[in-house]
Amino acid sequence: ACSHLRVVQTRWQEVLDNLDSVALNHKELLSDEVLKLLADTDTLFNVLQRRDLRISYRKEVEKPLKELFQGQSLEVLRTKLDDIHKELRSSRLFVATHMHAGDGNVHTNIPVNSNDYQMMHEAELIVDGVMKLAGDLGGVISGEHGIGLTKMQYLDKATIDAFAGYKQKVDPL
């Protein structure tokens, strides 16, 4: 079981580490079916985005482990595997993006379970990274909807003062 998990982990990590690489340079990570679908310029990211390549927990981890741990005496182990997977699925984080074609606005949203303190803390760290990336790419975080409480901590005093002055002019009440 441990050997199988190491193989799967290594493969998934190789895909992650090489998302921008030409997929044909990583044939060992791809099935014959996926190789038939590749264009010469496809990156691993392109192949994942099209869903030609899928990283599947159920197919690559759950099914082989449940086949290995068959029998009534190992039912508790299989149930524990299901419980761990359910817990991890409900607490995984992702950044959803929404954008307007042509005007440069990109909105991010990180769905969280408000009763999961650890999840909320991890989401805050992700927000820190998103805000830093926006600045590093030359963007601003004030956007079309103004500056809310969640953004204030990421702005310098000059930006806040400029926004407050503008707001006072257009909406003095």
Structure description:
The protein is mainly alpha-helical and 173 residues long. The chain has two domains: 2-91, no CATH class; 96-170, no CATH class. It contains eight helices and two strands. It has a two-stranded antiparallel ribbon. A hairpin with a 6-residue loop joins strand 1 and strand 2 (106-109). It is flat and about 70 Å long. The model has no long low-confidence stretch (mean pLDDT 90).
Shape: flat
Structural class: mainly alpha
Major sheet: arrangement of strands: 1-2
Give the oligomeric state: single chain
Query: How is the main sheet built?
Result: 2 strands, antiparallel
Q: What is the beta-strand fraction?
A: under 5%
Tally of DSSP helical segments: 8
Distance between the terminal alpha carbons, to the nearest Å? 66 Å
**Domains (count):** 2
The count of strands amounts to 2
Rg from C-alpha positions? 23 Å
The helix/strand order is: HHHHHEEHHH
Estimate the helix proportion, in percent.
Answer: 40-55%
Query: What's the mean pLDDT score?
Result: 90
Low-confidence stretches: none
Keywords: FAD, Flavoprotein
Organism: Pseudidiomarina aestuarii
Protein name: FAD-linked oxidase
GO molecular function: catalytic activity; flavin adenine dinucleotide binding
